[in-house]
Specification:
- The chain is globular and about 40 Å long.
- The protein is built from 2 helices and 11 strands.
- It is about 15% helix and about 30% strand.
- The strands form 3 sheets. A 6-stranded antiparallel β-sheet has the order 3-6-5-7-2-8. A 3-stranded antiparallel β-sheet has the order 9-10-11. The chain has a two-stranded antiparallel sheet with strand order 1-4.
- It is α+β, with helices and mostly antiparallel strands and about 150 residues long.
- The N and C termini lie far apart (about 30 Å).
């Protein structure tokens, strides 16, 4: 129970600046080997689905890199980890690194290896019910049209 409460607390705090805007493509199991800038926003202990479904920056977000934190593997909505959001030019296919099962890169610029978000829905950490979160951090169960 403590772990779930911590996840809700951490998730709500990091989502207060998130906006529903799903990525257009993704590259599973790879992080960029080359970055054209530093991360604009880093959010810890969030679902990969939150990283792929929400932009986290006030400027135009171009890509985000998610790295799994396995301490949350048994929680609803796993995988959880660190989402680093970027606003610079996205890495090209040639700039992506070697295979890394704990890494996932999401693109809003359409340069990923696979189309779409690549993840499941954002889940309520307590119940596992699908939904979305408004920009103020309020989780809306059963919805996919948060603001």
């Amino acid at each position: 129970m403590r772990c779930h409460s911590l996840l809700i607390f951490l998730g709500l705090g990091s989502l207060s600046t998130a906006t529903l805007d799903p990525c257009t493509s993704n590259t599973p199991n790879k992080c960029p080997a080359t970055y054209n800038c530093s991360a604009t926003k880093v959010s810890k202990a969030i679902q990969a689905a939150e990283c792929s479904h929400n932009t986290r920056t006030s400027s135009t977000q171009t890509f985000a890199v998610f790295v799994t934190d396995h301490q949350y593997d048994s929680s609803h909505g796993a995988p959880y980890g660190t989402c680093s959001a970027y606003t610079c030019i996205s890495p090209t296919t040639a700039e992506m690194g070697s295979t890394d099962d704990d890494c996932w890169t999401f693109f809003w610029s359409g340069t990923g290896e696979e189309n779409g978000v690549g993840t499941n829905c954002i889940e309520d950490p307590e119940t596992g019910e699908c939904g979305c979160e408004n920009s103020d951090g309020t989780f809306v169960a059963g919805s996919d049209s948060c603001t």
